[in-house]
Design brief:
42% of the residues lie in helices and 18% in strands. The longest helix is centred in the N-terminal third of the chain and has 17 residues. With 198 residues, it is of the alpha/beta class. Pathway: Cofactor biosynthesis; thiamine diphosphate biosynthesis.
């Protein structure tokens, strides 16, 4: 199955209730401050919302919770790979997206046969402090050449206005966070995203 071209990331299911009815078909739940039953409840709720709206949910980081709740996708950063049980995830049928920033990380990611590879930050991002400087569009083009048919996600500082350049550079999917969550009208912004990424 080919993945949708627009991939927003949110930190709570309340966001999913707002954006899924607008037509978002691929969404990541990135929860940093919950564990145990509270975390599982959020993931279960998110899965249910996504099923209702015909969307795909990707769980960030929490691979064990993803297995426990019957999720279908998980996204891992490089530091998560240090402790993640990839064989257990695959046995559970989980699809896997992996973050990359340099060639060593890309080689490591590809060794796990990922279902998508993310490169970022393409542009400077305010979302989190990163040791990585902006990667730029040329790096997207290089990554796409190196990974071939594996879907490539552009993330970091992405906006509606920058989406076209990322696609032209080789990205298959563009991911957005603060361009939506910090917008004065998030719903209108999501609708704009959907229009430009059709």
């Amino acid at each position: 199955m080919s993945l949708p071209r627009f991939y927003p990331i949110f930190d709570h299911t309340d966001w999913l209730r707002r954006v899924l009815p607008l037509g978002v078909k691929l969404v990541q739940l990135r929860i940093k401050d919950l564990t145990g039953e509270a975390l599982n409840a959020q993931i279960t709720q998110a899965e249910s919302l996504c099923r209702t709206h015909g969307a795909t949910l990707v769980v960030n980081d929490h691979w064990q919770a993803a297995i426990d709740t019957g999720a279908t996708w998980v996204h891992l950063g490089q530091e998560d790979l240090d402790t993640a049980d990839i064989p257990a995830m695959r046995r559970a049928g989980l699809k896997l997206g992996l973050s990359t920033h340099d060639h060593a990380e890309l080689d490591r990611a590809l060794s796990h046969d990922p279902d998508y590879v993310a490169l970022g930050p393409v542009y400077p991002t305010i979302l989190k402090k990163m040791k990585w400087h902006e990667q730029g569009l040329d790096k997207l083009t290089e990554w796409k050449r190196l990974i071939g048919d594996v879907p490539l996600v552009a993330i970091g500082g992405m906006s509606v206005e920058r989406a076209g350049g990322a696609y032209a550079a080789g990205a298959d999917i563009v991911s957005a966070v603060t361009d939506i969550t910090l917008n004065p009208d998030p719903e209108a912004r999501v609708q704009h995203w959907i229009e430009v990424t059709r």
